[in-house]
Design brief:
365 residues; alpha/beta; Rossmann fold; Dihydrodipicolinate Reductase, domain 2; 7-stranded mixed β-sheet; 13 helices; Sacchrp_dh_NADP-bd; NAD(P)-bd_dom_sf; Saccharopine dehydrogenase NADP-binding domain-containing protein
Length: 365
Amino acid sequence: MQRSVLILGGYGNFGKRIAKALTADGICVIITGRNKAKAENFCQELPKGLTNSACFDVTENLEAQLKKLKPVVVINTCGPFQNSNYSVAEICIDQNVSYIDLSDGRDFVTGINTLHDKATAKGIAVISGASTVPGLSSAVIDHFKDDFSEIKSITYGISPGQKAERGLATTQAIMSYVGQKFRTVKGDNTERFGWQDIYRQKYPKLGSRWMANCDIPDLDLLPEYYGIKRVRFSAGLELSAMHLGLWGLSWVIRLGLPVKLQNHAHWLLKVSNWFNALGTSDGGMHIILKGKDQAGKTLTKKWFIIALKGDGPQIPTIPAIILAKKIAHNQSNLIGAMPCVGLVSLEEYLHELTPYNIKTYKEET
């Protein structure tokens, strides 16, 4: 019997990319969401015989649907995860179904190990953060770490193209911490606020773009897993006016305006799309590692991944795709609940991105 993968939010920004990659590998997928027509219509874009659809509210009917559909793994793309609980993952555990999500919620991902004993008892994998951070960020660190005797700091960030497709959940996630004070990082008491501490980052092919603070799981995970003392992650908007406008709004929030921007994310996303004609569909990510080499000398490694022609949104989906393939093909020995740190190698990641307009660049000093 074919082992299927159930994708929550299967016709959404990330879900549809995951579904196309899995079916291209011959894996059956079940496209789910609240809109039956959208689920069925998207299934028509996928290979025949490898798709099914289901329409239900995950907060009410997930257990019954898992019993009926019997997937081997559930991929949860239904963010934002910043204020979510683990009910979906817990239901999956109860039904002996492995679970993967694309969360970048700091507390959500770092706290997933609270489900470790339950998942271990069932012999299944529960993986949170199977996305760019910490999935790709940890893959890059693992790739370069043997060149270092010590990694003292990592400065990195993401700048998508203005025209690149973006979803409401991502917008809600960012708005949830704009202007808000971050929890301090272990070993680093630097005070940080969302979308502040702006700076300019130069990228190959893209030129320079503004960057600003974002709150992500890596702030806690990278010091724990790799002993990195200073972790700074930022994101940036391609259009300077939009980036600086949000930076200005972050100061209003920081000074005490009682507004929950995430409640206005739908409107803010709509407004941002009005300016698409002024931007491009090209985006990138930079990772700068600083420390000492094996001889004790100062070493800096710079790594960039550049996505052109709108292919940037493929990058966050890759860890979930790779891990789901391994589980569906009985090639995974992962058991228990864990963040997606060191679970996907950089070689695996880049191989999965081969069909797309995506290239990497390296510099060393």
